[in-house]
């Protein structure tokens, strides 16, 4: 399924930063679903407004809720290690966010209703940042963009045609990889390494 982006045109990093701050301010007042009642803060994003790569996770956990930043807990630390091993730089190359901006209770998967309530923020972020590459992290995120029956194991590591002019790839979620320890060929950790090497090669080409 192809998605259309809004025609927001930010000419430079300054304009992108300004547009993102405005969107974040609106999001911080959001009461569109019940998750607003239990959040400490919204978890909007981390990274550069003009980053070439946008990484999208599913939802903030307790560490992210406390810090107000995505991927700062154990999964985030593992993600950082994988990125660095592939020659990617979290601070320089990435804008990181989630499909929903508030922590679900007990770390449960976001519901379709919650994802719908947050969709305008996510698509706003994509339209403003206009990255060259988007990485969809894990099955829940993949299903938000493609369809509800897809499994990450069927599709990870392939370049997907979801947005015009943006290369999109689904990768495994680092929370899943925390439970997978093998680094043998074709193990989930080994596949993640190979997928991120492809991302680095694409980044160097673009
Ligand atoms: N998992 C996610 O999907 N996002 C985060 O920000 C943290 C953990």
- In CATH terms, the superfamily is Uracil-DNA glycosylase-like domain
Question: Largest sheet, described in full?
Answer: 6 strands, mixed
Instruction: Note the total helix count.
Output: 9
SSE-based structural type: alpha/beta
Order of helices and strands: HEEHHHEHEHHEEHH
- Our measurement of the CA-to-CA distance between the termini, rounded to an integer number of angstroms, reads 24 Å
CATH architecture: 3-Layer(aba) Sandwich
Strand order within the widest beta sheet: 1-3-2-4-6-5
CATH topology: Uracil-DNA Glycosylase, subunit E
CATH class: Alpha Beta
What shape does the CA trace take? globular
Mean pLDDT: 94
Q: Which cofactor or ligand species appear? A: uracil
Explain what the structure shows.
This protein has nine helices and six strands. The protein has helices at 13-28, 62-67, 74-85, 90-93, 112-129, 139-145, 152-155, 174-178, 188-205; strands at 46-47, 53-57, 94-98, 133-137, 159-163, 166-171. The two termini are 24 Å apart. A hairpin with a 2-residue loop joins strand 5 (159-163) and strand 6. The chain is globular and about 45 Å long. The protein has a single domain (2-205), classed as Uracil-DNA glycosylase-like domain (Uracil-DNA Glycosylase, subunit E, 3-Layer(aba) Sandwich). Strands 1-3-2-4-6-5 form a six-stranded mixed β-sheet, with helices on both faces. With 206 residues, it is α/β, with parallel strands linked by helices. The longest helix has 18 residues, at 112-129. Helix 1 (13-28) runs antiparallel to helix 5. Bound molecules: uracil. Uracil binds at residues 57-61, 64, 70-71, 73, 75-76, 98, 175.
